[in-house]
Amino acid sequence: MQTRKLGRTGPQVAQLGLGLMGMSDLYGPADRGESLATIRAAMDAGVSLLDTGDFYGMGHNEMLLGEALAAGGRDGVQISVKFGALRDPAGNWAGIDTRPVALKNFAAYSLKRLGVEHIDIYRPARLDPNVPIEDTVGAIAELVQAGRVRHIGLSEVGSETLRRAHAVHPIADLQIEYSLISRGIENGILQTCRELGIGITAYGVLSRGLISGHWSKQREGEADFRGLASPRFQGENLDRNLALVEKLRAIAGELGVSVAQVAIAWVAAQGEDIVPLVGARTRVRLEEALASTRVKLSPSDLARLEQAVPPGAASGGRYDAHSTAVLDSENS
Questions:
Q1: Which end of the chain is more exposed for a tag (fewer CB within 10 A), N or C?
Q2: Residue 225 has pLDDT above 80, yes or no
Q3: E strands within 85-238?
Q4: Nearest Cα to 170, choosing from 148, 153, 191?
Q5: What's the CATH code, domain 3-331?
Q6: CA nearest neighbour of 285 among 12, 13, 39
């Protein structure tokens, strides 16, 4: 497993990271034993960046990761934690809170659930419109000084917010959606990150499974986040997007790899400052994703993929209208 550095000031991590959200939330039931086995298999394979959030399953995801770390140790593992998203007892979203007093409380609970002395990368899940980013980053910087946090990250913010935050304390990386069919980052945000020396941890590299090669029309309307709230998985949007997947399947077949592998490899090929995060929930899907690190796309391969799925080709937004309205990365 090769490594990449997250920005000028961030840690050196494996070239592929593991996002744990689906093991606790939003994508339907997950098998606890298989989740733990998948996390451990990832660590054994050299995956060193493990991404979680304190609101994934309302603490369940952090406790799951804490159990995996207790069994396998955390040597060489970099833990990335998102905070600030509020939930009610029914699991509904209830806003965002990144006030200094709140985030220090969130961090204390995360450290306890994870069973660790420090968090490697700590980041607000979204921009809080009621709290200046300078206040949020300044409070995390105090946790850095106290040894509770090693690096500061951000998630789904635009260029202006990146500049303001970076002026307070160096930002290691921006976590943001990036895939063959989600390329908004290329309209200024990626350029700003490179100017400032901020790395990218790219989530949604398979667009929540849509371009994994494993999704089908028969799964439309499944009772999870995708079927109920994601426009890309609904109606005519789904038909058009699955047609794009078939174009990818043809290219992947010629290369002797799977659709998922070529999609992950495309993200990785966009720059050494980008680390794809995969949301594998099983060891089978993890093995498929790990094999993407051995896929080398030539300039002609990249050109063919660009022709098959050009920017703007996806039908439907990556989030619904309400969620998009509060994304600083979409509206700045």
A1: N
A2: no
A3: 85-87, 93-96, 119-124, 149-155, 171-177, 199-203
A4: 153
A5: 3.20.20.100
A6: 39
- The model carries a pTM of 0.95
Q: Three-state SS for 12?
A: strand
Residue 52 predicted with pLDDT over 80? yes
- Quote the CA–CA distance of 44 and 85 in Å, as a whole number: 31
| Active site members | 56
The DSSP symbol for 55 reads T
Helices 159-168 and 189-196 cross at an angle (nearest 10°) of 20
Separation between Cα atoms, residue 22 and residue 115, nearest integer Å: 21
What whole-number distance in Å separates Cα of residue 266 and Cα of residue 305?
8
Q: Determine the pLDDT at residue 248.
A: 97
Let me know: does 95 contact 88? Beta carbons within 8 Å.
no
Lowest-confidence pick of 110-114, 161-165, 227-231, 234-238: 227-231
Q: Which of 264, 256, 250, 267 is nearest to 292 (CA)?
A: 264
- Mean pLDDT calculated for residue range 9-15: 97
Q: Are 163 and 332 in contact (CB under 8 A)?
A: no
Residue 200 half-sphere exposure toward CB, CA atoms < 13 A: 29
Q: For residue range 249-306, what is the model confidence (pLDDT) as tens digits?
A: 999 999 999 999 999 999 999 999 999 999 999 999 999 999 999 999 999 999 999 9
Mean pLDDT score of the chain:
94
> CB within 8 A of 110, min separation 6: which ones?
54, 62, 81, 83, 119
pLDDT value for 223: 62
The domains of the chain are located at: 3-331
Stretch 223-239: mean pLDDT: 83
DSSP string, 118-155: -EEEEEESS--TTS-HHHHHHHHHHHHHTTSEEEEEEE
